[in-house]
Design goal:
This protein is an alpha+beta fold and 543 residues long. Helix content is 27%, strand content 19%.
Length: 543
């Protein structure tokens, strides 16, 4: 799959990037971390968020606040299991049957599923949900993931019926045919845009969502609250355990910390503010509530290869020797590990090999001289104006000065940054990416393919190497994960030899949960798994 710009999802990524990937092979949820080992019933789980959800439409949702709500209100055919990146069955009866050529996926729904309004969930609903992602009128933020479906382009030009690649076989069975093999498609169906809504409800889902998930939307008061109620007809009984989820809106991260410490909220929708990090992580009273986790994410610097002098390979190589990753990590409270390649741990294609360059000022200066810049040059670097970028960028500016490059540092609001870097106006851009799913194509293809080297794409380096693209496509076509991993490694080596980016570190996150939340575990791809959490002052039986 190929993805273009997703400006709003950068907001989701910020909350998720600084949130969680737990160790592989963890809990399924019922007895995960928490002060109570046995699930209890009833009560209200209270959370806080800095911003309102921009929509309740799963095809359009890309922001952090609505991302969490999507998992509560809707089902998808597949979901992620507990604190792992492994898929599990959700609305589907079984994992997809894939044709020998890798093009056609056939899925069957569980029998007896109903939406919260009592209507049955059918294959026609799934087909409709997938098709509307490809309808330009929907304005789906992540439609690019779905454009590998056969007939997607023709459907976008004339969105009537279904794309030729989506077929309803019977009430519970549908098939999806792709233009090319894509082993990541099973993960794409587990993304928010894969959420199932009733056929024909696209005009109302943004404000009055109907799903088959564990909760239903009870109230949304902009700037104040979102209230969700337990769906009593939810198929996965006895979940959800809590009766309600109350999301308080417009609460900045500092106040979220105070509210959690006072017991006013159970979970924070924002990362721990950097200024409070040491205080929280060293407080012995909070020891049992602090969780440190890895996150499948990479923080990196891009060099725009369409802009001189970054069209010169020796200049790009010189910059790859400019940074001390350990020193950079100290500026972000050690929330990460030095990047040794581009694809992070926990994602298929991460090799564990050290493929990056350490800091070497003399070598960098020599490479600049060899490139025709013995006295260095002046350039611009763009970064977000929030943590962790506000801490990293000034040090990187100094590191580049040490090798002879004078940088005019411009810090911007996240959306402004994404628009400018996506338009190709950023010679250097400090950015990051969080896994949408645990396959290397989500990094190499989404961020560095020829298809994404276009205005408003996410390929800020405007990098294009057909050999890398070919290696990635071979990885996606492989039925054997070991073969796919080898092709991703080959693709990574091709890309890093060209130095369009400098991988800096793989992200981790430390988060804090409330003392009265049970069953809590972080989810690597999503943030919360609210159906599996409970209040420790709840009842032993459903009231």
């Amino acid at each position: 799959m190929k993805r273009l710009v997703r400006i709003a999802v950068v907001g989701a990524a910020m909350a998720l990037a600084l949130t969680a990937c737990a160790p592989a092979g963890g809990s399924s949820g019922d007895n995960a971390s928490g002060s109570s080992e046995t699930a209890l019933y009833g009560g209200t789980i209270t959370t806080a968020a800095a911003s309102d959800p921009e929509t309740f439409d799963p095809a359009v949702c890309t922001g952090a606040t609505c991302w969490n709500i999507m998992r509560m209100v809707f089902d998808r055919l597949y979901d992620y299991d507990g604190d792992t990146s492994n898929l599990k069955l959700q609305a589907a009866e079984d994992f997809p049957q894939v044709s020998d050529d890798g093009l056609t996926y056939t899925m069957k729904l569980k029998e007896g599923l109903t939406f919260s309004n009592g209507a049955p969930v059918t294959a026609a609903d799934v087909a409709y949900s997938y098709a509307r992602v490809l309808d330009p009128a929907t304005k789906a933020g992540l439609a690019e993931f779905w454009k590998g479906i056969a007939g997607a382009e023709e459907y976008a030009a004339n969105p009537t019926g279904l794309p030729s690649g989506i077929k309803v076989i019977d009430d519970l069975t549908l098939s999806v045919t792709l233009d090319a093999p894509n082993s990541a498609f099973k993960y794409i169906m587990a993304m928010p845009a894969g959420s199932i809504i009733p056929e024909g409800s696209g005009s109302t889902v943004a404000t009055a969502p109907i799903g088959s998930g564990p909760f239903t939307l009870a109230d949304f008061t902009p700037g104040q609250q979102v209230m969700l109620d337990r769906n009593p007809s939810y198929w996965d009984s006895p979940r959800p355990y809590a009766d309600h989820v109350h999301m308080i809106l417009g609460v900045d991260p500092d106040n979220q910390v105070l509210m959690l410490q006072k017991g006013d909220i159970d979970l924070m929708g924002s990362p721990i503010p950097p200024a409070k990090f040491v205080q929280i992580t060293t407080d012995p009273k909070l020891k049992d509530q602090v969780i440190s986790i890895d996150k499948p994410s990479t923080y990196y610097l891009t060099m725009n290869m369409n802009t001189a002098p970054f069209d010169n390979p020796k200049v790009r190589e010189a910059i790859s020797y400019a940074f001390d990753r350990d020193s950079l990590l100290k500026l972000v409270n050690g929330q990460g590990t030095p990047a040794t390649e581009f694809i992070p741990p926990g994602v298929l294609g991460h090799s564990g090999d050290d493929l990056t360059h350490g800091k070497d000022v003399d070598k960098a200066k020599q490479l600049l001289a060899d490139a025709g810049y013995p006295n260095g040059f002046d350039t611009q670097m763009y970064a977000w104006n929030v943590a962790p970028f506000s801490a990293l960028a000034p040090q990187m500016q100094q590191d580049l000065k040490d090798i002879g490059i004078t940088v005019d540092l411009q810090t911007l609001a996240p959306n402004t940054f994404a628009e400018l870097a996506g338009s190709g106006k950023a010679p250097l851009a400090l950015t990051f990416w969080v896994a949408d799913y645990p396959e290397g194509s989500d990094f190499l293809q989404a961020l560095l393919s020829c298809a994404t080297a276009v205005p408003q794409g996410q390929n800020f380096a405007y990098y294009c190497n057909e050999q890398m693209d070919s290696d990635v496509q071979q990885a996606l076509s492989a039925s054997d994960e070991s073969v796919a991993a080898e092709k991703y490694l080959e693709a990574t080596k091709v890309m890093l030899a060209d130095n369009p980016v400098v991988p800096l570190y793989f992200g981790t996150k430390t988060e804090i949960r409330g003392a009265n939340i049970g069953g809590y575990y972080p989810q690597p791809i999503w943030a919360w798994d609210m159906a599996y959490y409970w209040k420790t002052d709840g009842s032993a039986e459903r009231q």
